[in-house]
Amino acid sequence: MNKILQHSFCITALFATCLALADVVPYLDPRSQGINGARELVGWQTQINKWDMCCMYGSFSITPEYTRTFKANSMTQALFGGALVGSNTTCNTDCNNNHNGNGCSTILIQGTKVKNRDANALLAENFYLPTDYSSAITFKPRVENFLVDFNYYQGLDEWVEGMYFRIHTPVTWSRWNLNYCENIVSAGTNNMDPGYFNNTYTPANALDPSVYGLQRSQLLENFEQYINGSQSITGVTGITYDPLEKARWNNCRMSKTRLAEITAAWGWNFVRRENFLFGLNVRAAAPTGNSPHGTYLFEPIVGNGHHWELGGGTNLWWTWWKSCDEDRNLTMYLDAYATHMFKSRQSRSFDLCGKPLSRYMLAMKFGTPVTNLTAGDTIPASTAPTAQFQNEFTPLANLTTIPVDVSYAVQGEAILKLAYTHCNFQFDIGYDFWGRSCAKIRKRCDCCDNGFKDNVWGLKGDAFMYGFTDDFATPTPVIGTTGIPLSATQSQATVFGGTNNFNSTTTFWNANSGVDTPSQAFNGNTATSLGLATHEIGDTDTALNQANWRQVLTSSPSPVLLTEADIDTDSARTKGYSNKVFAHLGYIWKDCECWTPYLGIGGEAEFGSHFNNCNDNCHKPCATTSSTSCNTSCHNGDSNNNCAKFALSQWGIWVKGGVSFN
Q1: Which of 156, 382, 479, 565 has a CA 20 to 30 Å removed from the CA of 321?
Q2: Strand partners, 312
Q3: 306 and 408 share a domain?
Q4: In this structure, are residues 326 and 360 in contact, taking their beta carbons and an 8 Å threshold?
Q5: What SS3 state is found at 217?
Q6: Per-residue confidence (pLDDT) for residue 612, from 0 to 100
């Protein structure tokens, strides 16, 4: 019984850990709009792959189609994972984004000092917002496509009986809408604490109980200004606050119009009978669509991501039943193929190892020389850290959006359908399976072109980055007027919070007790050197009516800095499959001799594989350190367990018309 209880506890703990560390995919790789064997096969099947031809013949079709995704929550689950807090009834509010459905997915943005802060809320200070800011973001993403697919089939029986060539390409307009809405619960009124974001304080009297670092008006007004408006902290001299430039969210619908890709097949139907036909083909695709650039999280993609493809396929039909007058028949059709998707250069945003959504954390630049900063247990024994903050904050996505080579070992599709023909009418009903293997993502040798360099950037979390000299005299200490940059990093911080533990009853939040290898910070190791201190707004000595300043800690002997190995391309890999049902009703004008027109209408419903945090993609978490490799220790080298499973679910309706000729 004890063993059963132990096993049950372990399973429960593992499940809870998996949810808490649920991974996300920074890019949804869709099935190409040009990959639709159902749409390609229906309506003209009696006009192609004929068994009794000995001359040239052909057919040309045009198929306009409209598609739209459903199951929006599966998309937000893949994009935001453990940050989601469930559905929110405020999604019924229009909010300029047509949120009129039930149960939109929601994430929270909350500052460190929000009362009863949700553990799954993204830390507001990462977005240059005040510590008491609180809002809820609802999502209802949608992908729409309108395309016109041009198909041409040429029978080459005059050269070799059963030989054919076919080519098709869809002109595609694709519109992607993240469809998010920010509902501000509290815009926040807090000024920022001295030393947290800047190296000065107001008013000039450091002991004034109301002393602060940055004024609320210098911070952003709302989350949308950060995530979409490319805005940052203003009015500070000597310190750089970079805006978010990559992995942004667009609150408008974005669209792209391109040829998806040009796909061609050369085949030979070498088994030809009156009631049965079987053939093989070589298939290739030339990329004409676009590839991701990483500027936006939910950017429109037309085509297969700009991959060349090469492979082969098979086609057959088998007439099961035919009436005596041959006006009616029931025929089964099967088309299947598989191709290799060669590597394509793309630009994608990535997280850090074991830190989902960390691309939305703040990073800080470090370097040398180290000026007026030492660390240790005492002033005489203190030594200078190896690097010091260089007065620049930047969103991590600006650094981890890098060029990569992406390829897929195999992509395949199989279409099975039954076609019933009655005189000039024909009705098709069938099933379509599509699948794609796990992506192979490799960093390019020119990845450092984006500004990322090893051992330059560290994670901020909720660390204070400046300390002010303090002689700690009683009762009126003398505080320096300009803060000294520290060497503090928080490698264990996440997008959900820092490691200084604001709610601790034994330590002071502003003392930096949660930074890496904490050590007391001083402005030197001479007889005249002083300790460095910070102040948390609200921490006052009531008896003296003055602000309390606390000794601050910094990372020593070295801050923990990021390297290229910390960029987690592994967990960004995806695979996918979908199951589709479709139907088509058409009419063929068989009485025409040389030219045979045909026209029909059809539709489809495709059900894509869905992201499953625990069963499919619970990656092994690891600490972000400069010695960590994403491809080895971070994920134990298990490529199968570290590949997210996702494909879009969508419905579509088409009209297919064309003409055949002999």
Answers
A1: 156
A2: 282, 338
A3: yes
A4: no
A5: helix
A6: 56
* Contact (Cβ atoms closer than 8 angstroms) between residue 27 and residue 351: no
Distance CA 248, CA 298 (A): 8
Q: Per residue in 448-493, pLDDT tens?
A: 555 578 999 999 999 999 999 999 998 999 999 999 999 999 999 9
Secondary structure string (H, E, C) spanning 436-448: ECCEEEEECCCHH
In a domain, 113, yes or no: no
- What pLDDT score was predicted for residue 450? 54
Q: What is the predicted pLDDT for the residue at 641?
A: 56
Instruction: For residues 261 and 296, state if they share a domain.
Output: yes
Question: What total number of domains does the chain contain?
Answer: 2
What is the three-class DSSP state of 216?
helix
SS3 320: strand
Which of 263, 312, 310, 262 has the alpha carbon at shortest distance from 288?
A: 262
**Three-class SS state of 375:** strand
The alpha carbon of 530 is separated from its chain's Cα centroid by a whole number of angstroms, namely 47
| Whether residue 313 sits in one domain with residue 420 | yes
Q: What pLDDT score does 590 carry?
A: 83
Q: Same domain, yes or no, for 520 and 621?
A: no
Token digits for 114?
């929000």
Range of the domain at 513: 191-248+362-395+457-560
Q: Are the C-beta atoms of 223 and 249 separated by less than 8 Å?
A: no
Q: Residue 105: its pLDDT value, please?
A: 87
- Below-70 pLDDT ranges, the chain: 1-23, 86-103, 445-451, 611-641
Note whether 194 and 213 are within 8 A (CB): yes
Three-state secondary structure of 500-519: CCCCCCCCCHHHCCCCCCEE
Measured at the alpha carbon of residue 13, what is the angle toward residues 10 and 18, in degrees to the nearest 5? Answer: 125
The CA-atom distances, in angstroms, between 631 and each of 209, 349, 421, 637 are: 51, 17, 55, 6
Considering the domain architecture, whether residues 481 and 516 belong to the same structural domain is answered as yes
Strands 574-588 and 644-645: parallel
| Alpha-carbon gap, residue 319 to 296, rounded angstroms | 50
Residue 527 lies in a domain: yes
Residues 315 and 437 in one domain: yes
**Do the beta carbons of residue 395 and residue 358 sit within 8 Å?**
no
The answer to whether the pTM exceeds 0.70 is yes
Q: What is the largest CA-CA distance in the chain?
A: 111
- Residue whose C-alpha is closest to residue 137's, from 271, 244, 24, 227: 227
Tell me the chain's radius of gyration from C-alpha atoms. Answer: 31
Peptide bond into 130 cis (omega under 30): no
CB atoms inside a 10 Å sphere around CB 467: 33
CATH number, domain containing residue 303 = 2.40.160.40
Whether 273 is covered by a domain: the verdict is yes
